[in-house]
Amino acid sequence: QLQASGGGLVQAGGSLRLSCASSGFTFSNYVMGWFRQAPGKEREFVASISLRGTIRDYADSVKGRFTISRDYAKNILYLQMNALKPEDTADYFCAADRLRLQVYENDYWGQGTQVTVSS
Length: 119
Hints:
Elements: E1 2-5, E2 8-11, E3 16-22, E4 31-37, E5 44-49, E6 56-58, E7 66-71, E8 76-81, E9 90-97, E10 108-109, E11 113-118
Parallel strand pairs: 2-11
Antiparallel strand pairs: 1-3, 3-8, 4-5, 4-9, 5-6, 7-8, 9-10, 9-11
């Protein structure tokens, strides 16, 4: 299971940190990542981190502003979001997969946590 938290309402330029607690599977055996879905839009990839945490990928829209990380001792995935923009407003979902993250098909999904950025 994945349990996401940390969403909220923030002003443009502000920061939030999302967390995703995992249980029931071996955390270090899974690629982990974040996706988001804004109202009326398709779900999109945000960031991913490899099994050992050595490779991180980001959507172009969040590069330089968001940082993905994982804590192997606590089995928690994080997404530090800085310099937030109104266009970052969406439901954010964490996901885990043994092989490769995909937009809709992954082994595990967390429930969404809502992020709202006011202008």
